[in-house]
Amino acid sequence: MRIIIDGMGGDNAPSEIVKGVVDAAALIDHEIHIVGDEKKIEAELAKYKYKKEQIKIVHASDVITNDDAPVKAVRTKQDSSLVKGINLLKSGGGELFISAGNTGAIMAAGLFILGRIQGIDRPAIASTYPILGKGVSLLVDSGANAECKPNNLLEFAAMGSIYMEKVLNVKKPTVGLVNMGTEENKGPTVLKAAHELLSKSSTNFVGNIEARDVPKGICDVIVCDGFIGNVILKLTEGLAWNILKLLKNKFTDGMLPKMGALLLSSKLKELKSEFDYSEYGGAPILGVKGAVVKMHGSSNANAVKNTILKGIPYAENNVVQTIQNSVLELEEIIISE
Amino acid sequence: MRIIIDGMGGDNAPSEIVKGVVDAAALIDHEIHIVGDEKKIEAELAKYKYKKEQIKIVHASDVITNDDAPVKAVRTKQDSSLVKGINLLKSGGGELFISAGNTGAIMAAGLFILGRIQGIDRPAIASTYPILGKGVSLLVDSGANAECKPNNLLEFAAMGSIYMEKVLNVKKPTVGLVNMGTEENKGPTVLKAAHELLSKSSTNFVGNIEARDVPKGICDVIVCDGFIGNVILKLTEGLAWNILKLLKNKFTDGMLPKMGALLLSSKLKELKSEFDYSEYGGAPILGVKGAVVKMHGSSNANAVKNTILKGIPYAENNVVQTIQNSVLELEEIIISE
Lengths: 337, 337
Prior knowledge:
2 copies of one chain form a homodimer. Chain A is α/β, with parallel strands linked by helices. Helices cover about 45% and strands about 15% of the residues of chain A. The longest helix of chain A has 26 residues, at about 225-250.
């Protein structure tokens, strides 16, 4: 298997991307192809020891930045590392594509170049959500589709379940629909309809869930539109860091015996690492015809390494094919409404 | 001024309601009328010392529970403590009404009995959102309207600003619109239109805000639809308690010197109290013709006491009248679109 990575996307490219690639390569046998400015990437690679036959550079002269309008950029920057990388994935030059670049452009490139899996109306971003002391849930959609129809939410549930089972090894993952209350007739019309569709599906649907229960790990796959998903992900990030910062200040005000302060500081670090996105790898774009993973824009080498390692089963375990096979069941449910 | 309180609403009624009333009464000169089952409330009052002329009981034979369908309950349970209390407010028997009962029924009673302020399309629940170490923001709407039109969001901003200024003493409160990014053309159509309306308003609008910045206190009034508001409020509650619980476990594993553990435990309690809704008082229903405050269903005596104390300026500082006076400007903005 070959892994393709966008060498130029993200705040810390190419230095942290290259370092992460070298670190990951040391742990696996797969080839990794870095797409981007040959000279810059070569200069970074020169800093490390690695097997020349394992890490290769595919030159791309252009870059899509976060300021670029996604659709326009994908259409016009044909020689950008992102477009070239996705084209390489499409043509069979690799089985997994990873980028820390412009999220909208990654989605657009996935849609225009790879195309949607037939029968999937809206691809979605699936982000891992850290459950303190208990692993992760999967949040689908975490930002691709601000407004959704009931069938989109059904698709998110099905695709998220498949990913959770095939990649994160959770058997019969439970699925919850984020709503304002747990009663089945709660919330906006679109959620009532989605509840009905999900109840008929073969996913392990547990019903409506409230936002307060998300951090407790109430279910494996958290289904919501991309706006709500974005709010859940960003609020969690903001609040967790804020609490930890405040605690650190409270605990380092000089009143604690030194040993106690040190011990505490290590406990806080443990907790911080549980919230650290770089430990969890990236977020797959589910519903396009290929294994595409987006990383956080500020990914460091550790995040890059983990995204590569955790992305491998996504490509190897036939997730895309399994989603394709599930589409028939979804269509039956939607049409029967 | 007279304060009317629903003696029967909430998980801890009437005992904690009565205790909170007695505690608040000792600090103020206003009369407090408790509406509910006379015998039960009398039995609770008998446990305390208080001025007989300050606390009075208004008998109501019925109760609206959380299992009641709100609209039906308000229509049919005419002698419930909630309906009787709101009727008393309407007829001038008091200037402030407080209840820890069924939120939907409080909204329905406000709408049907008091009525909307003319020109306000949708009343909203405004909840205080704790900003660690920095006071509070006001979240409008925090759950009354799952789906909103742009003009509703404009109304929430205007009403929230007036409440923040008149009741929480914040001069020229800043207003932010929750969106998926800070650029003005972000997000669903309804938010783009709301951004345009807000830009034309006399509120101190700072633009779109992201959920990650809400816990940092990025603005005084956080505007969003009731679904998003519900997610923000509940996720914050769930995550904060989860983090604190985990920290408590980490810090009480026996490895710390006893003095350190005690000190830590007190620091955690400080933080916990910052998240404790019972410190902040209740949530006003903005946009109905009267000062109505809803409390958390699980309110204890402390929450009741604080809600009474913090509710007084809501009734005394002409918030309802000021909202009424602002409607003309809002209508001009909406019509000019």
